[in-house]
């Protein structure tokens, strides 16, 4: 397979456009899974989605393509596969994240059943993004030999690891709010939840901007901006949900960015 800069630019532009569409679509009405599926069921009985899968199975199937597609692109590349820095960054950072999301997060989640419709469009998205990020890093990415010393590389890696730490810790705190089998919602406590309702989303955004800065490429920046467009509104709707549901919800807490928004 050869590198086609036009294909990369086109696929990245579509990802950015999808992000803007999602910001417009879900800015007002939250995506209907998790706590917001519950609200739709309460407000519009009969409008809730009919077909659901257990959360563990749904998140495993949804996120698997984001790990498998770039891993396959790496495997299809003629050896030595990990010689180019781009392949190592893809393998270590992007595939590393989705290895955790697919094989650890999904098996530990205590989430409520997940709508089949959202799962299928989520899978499609993960195939698309997995291909774009994988294709660029395996066939197009080129870095100078001293890229390791570049401030973009070092600060990007640090931001990625910092964000991943916040994301995994915050998802753990959310999981600990429930006993196995429980589906109720409680006020998140501790960690970055002291400052924001969407601590896990804040970590996820830092992670993908870290990846974008370390890899310094259009596909990665497009995905980081897409993530802001999807999890940003979700943090905002989570925050409003908590303020509606819990009278004692801390008023000093923001939705997504500590002390700001
Ligand atoms: N999944 C990314 N529409 C999305 C699936 C849906 O990973 O294009 C985006 C992803 C996809 C979406 C994905 C992309 C856009 C799509 C959309 C479907 C349609 C849409 C394709 C791929 C689309 C068109 C075509 C029309 C434009 O029961 P529960 O589940 O609520 O339990 C929750 C629990 N919890 C609590 N428990 C007790 N008390 C509380 N107060 C609780 N609050 C939450 O914690 C869950 O088990 C768990 C986490 O819940 P929540 O709601 O905080 O996070 P969640 O949204 O489930 O995300 C889980 C993790 C998180 O770390 C987040 O950062 C990451 O996944 N994520 C999620 C979404 C997108 C994404 C990352 C990214 O873009 N990078």
Overall description:
- This protein is mainly α and 261 residues long.
- Helix content is 67%, strand content 2%.
- It has helices spanning 5-28, 35-43, 55-76, 85-108, 116-140, 151-175, 199-215, 218-245; strands at 52-53, 114-115.
- It has a two-stranded antiparallel ribbon.
In short:
67% of the residues lie in helices and 2% in strands.
* Secondary structure: number of strands: 2
Number of helices: 8
How would you sum up the global shape?
Answer: globular
Strand share of the residues? under 5%
Question: Low-confidence parts, pLDDT < 50 over ≥5 residues?
Answer: none
Average of pLDDT: 93
Write a concise keyword list for the protein shown above.
261 residues, mainly alpha, binds ligand NDX
Task: Describe the SSE topology.
Blueprint: H1 5-28, H2 35-43, E1 52-53, H3 55-76, H4 85-108, E2 114-115, H5 116-140, H6 151-175, H7 199-215, H8 218-245
Antiparallel strand pairs: 1-2
Helix pairs in contact: 1-5, 1-8, 3-4, 3-5, 4-5, 4-6, 6-7, 7-8
The structure holds ligand NDX.
Ligand NDX binds at residues 18, 21-22, 25, 31, 34-35, 55, 109-112, 118, 121-122, 125, 167, 171, 174, 177-178, 183, 185-186, 188, 200-201, 204, 227, 230-231, 234.
């Amino acid at each position: 397979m050869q590198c086609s800069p036009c294909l990369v630019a086109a696929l990245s532009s579509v990802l950015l456009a999808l992000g803007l569409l999602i910001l417009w679509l879900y800015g007002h009405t939250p995506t209907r899974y998790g706590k917001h599926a519950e609200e739709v069921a309460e407000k519009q009985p009969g409008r809730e989605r009919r077909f659901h899968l257990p959360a563990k199975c749904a998140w495993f199937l949804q996120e698997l393509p984001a790990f498998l597609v770039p891993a396959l692109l790496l495997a299809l590349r003629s050896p030595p596969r990990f010689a180019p820095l781009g392949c190592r960054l893809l393998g270590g950072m992007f595939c590393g994240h989705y290895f955790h999301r697919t094989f650890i997060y999904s098996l530990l989640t205590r989430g409520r059943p997940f709508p089949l419709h959202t799962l299928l469009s989520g899978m499609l998205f993960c195939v698309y993004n997995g291909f774009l990020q994988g294709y660029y890093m395996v066939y197009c990415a080129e870095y100078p030999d001293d890229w390791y010393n570049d401030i973009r590389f070092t600060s990007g890696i640090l931001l990625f690891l910092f964000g991943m730490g916040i994301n995994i810790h915050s998802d753990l705190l959310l999981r600990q709010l429930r006993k196995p089998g429980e589906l109720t919602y409680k006020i998140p406590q501790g960690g970055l939840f002291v400052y924001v309702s969407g601590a896990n989303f804040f970590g996820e955004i830092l992670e993908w901007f870290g990846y974008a800065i370390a890899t310094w490429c259009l596909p990665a920046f497009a995905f980081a901006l897409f993530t802001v467009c999807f999890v940003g509104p979700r943090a905002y709707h989570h925050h409003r949900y908590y303020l509606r549901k819990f009278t004692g919800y801390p008023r000093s807490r923001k939705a997504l960015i500590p002390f700001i928004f």
